[in-house]
Structure formats: structure tokens, C-alpha cells
């Protein structure tokens, strides 16, 4: 699957304190891939890798398998009453999909979102430059990476980054205006992903890691039906989801 024309570097980090579970140590396995094709990117996603820019990563922790790759069955998803109320509250929210970009508005919104998460949940804050944002969320998108922009009263209110796969979407990252909490833009963006998959006849939303003991990630199990990746396959082994 790798060709001579494809620049790849494999490496693994040293152990560090886990960002999700206080009593655990974490180590990440990485692939730096310059010019990944849609097929290769999808194959990695199906096997539990997450793309950020030109880097693909997945946990490789000693004695711990708490990070579970989860995919939502968008085809069979049924919207609850609460979901329908959230959708109705956003009836005036404007939604656009386009290739990823970075603007001062992106950075300002990103900063306000993370400052709010730092205050509310104790997230570690990092200053992100325009170059860093580009490397993390814009680079490596090829013709499959997209950003879904949400505007409220003409102002950028949320940015949702996704990859379009042959069988669904990979949900990469979403950030939104903390002053618009009444709109539940995080949930609304996921509902929009489900709508997209249903209209395009794509079944799955690969939503990243579900960690039962981490409040910031345990919410993902609320979106049923879903499947969990059961093995840790390489590119020569078929992934097993159930």
C-alpha cells in the first residue's frame, strides 16, 4: 500500500501521563504520511488511526486498552426528542462545507473555545499560531478532508473538521462559540454529520476514541447504535468491528 513516491515515517512517543485517565501512562504510535491517498487514509481510519494534518496516530500503551475506537451507525440512527429540539433550535444556523482553511476568525474562535474548556474542565491550554493550526487541521486533507462551518447571525459559530470516506465520515475535531451554549452546537454538528451520511448513503461515522472512565469522551456511547473496533490490526489485517 505504501509506494516509493509516498513519504512515510513511523515513530512512537515516550510514556507520558495519560490525558484521559489520571492513574494511567500513555504512549502514542505515529505515522507521518506526505500525500496520503483517500484509500490509504480510509484504511488507517478503519484500523483505529486518527488523522491530524499529515500525522496519523493511535494509542500504544503498555498494559492498557481503555481507548476504544467507536463508529456510529448513521444509517440506523434514530433521532430522539432532545435531538429534534436541538435541531429545531438551530433552524437559523447556516451550514457550509468546504476544504479546510485557516483565518483569524478560526483562531479567535479556537482560542475562546479552549479557554472555556480550560476554565470548565481543566483542559491544558496551548497557544496555537496560524502555522500550527494549518499543520494540525489543514495540511494533508487531499481531496477528502473538509471543514463544516456554522454561522449564527452572520458570525462564525463552529468549525467541524471531517474526512469523507467511501463508507462514511471520520469526525476529526469540532470547536464552537462557548457563548452559544444554548444551541448545543457540538451535538448539532454531529447530527449534521448523521444527516450527511444518511443522504449520501454512507453508513458510519468514525468518531475517535471512547474511554468509559473519561467524562470528556464517555458521551460518545450515547449515540446508538455503534460498533467498537475489536482488534489492533495493521494494514495487512482486516479490522473487526462489533
Structure, described:
- This protein is an alpha+beta fold and 242 residues long.
- It has a single domain (1-242), classed as Gcn5-related N-acetyltransferase (GNAT) (Aminopeptidase, 3-Layer(aba) Sandwich).
- It contains six helices and 13 strands.
- It has helices spanning 38-46, 81-89, 104-121, 130-138, 185-200, 215-218, and strands spanning 7-12, 16-17, 25-26, 28-34, 50-52, 55-59, 68-73, 94-98, 145-152, 155-164, 168-176, 204-210, 226-228.
- The strands form three sheets. It has a seven-stranded mixed beta sheet with strand order 8-9-10-11-12-7-13, with helices on both faces.
- Strands in their spatial order, largest beta sheet: 8-9-10-11-12-7-13
SSE string: EEEEHEEEHEHHEEEHEHE
How helix-rich are the residues, as a percent range?
Answer: 25-40%
Name the poorly predicted regions. Answer: none
Question: How large, in whole angstroms, is the Cα Rg?
Answer: 18 Å
Please provide the count of β strands: 13
Name the overall outline.
globular
How many domain regions?
1
Most strands sheet = 7 strands, mixed
- Just name the CATH architecture: 3-Layer(aba) Sandwich
Q: Could you tell me the mean pLDDT?
A: 93
Q: What is the terminal separation in angstroms?
A: 26 Å
CATH topology: Aminopeptidase
What is the SS-derived class? alpha+beta
Helical segment tally?
6
CATH superfamily grouping: Gcn5-related N-acetyltransferase (GNAT)
CATH class: Alpha Beta
Proportion of β residues?
25-35%
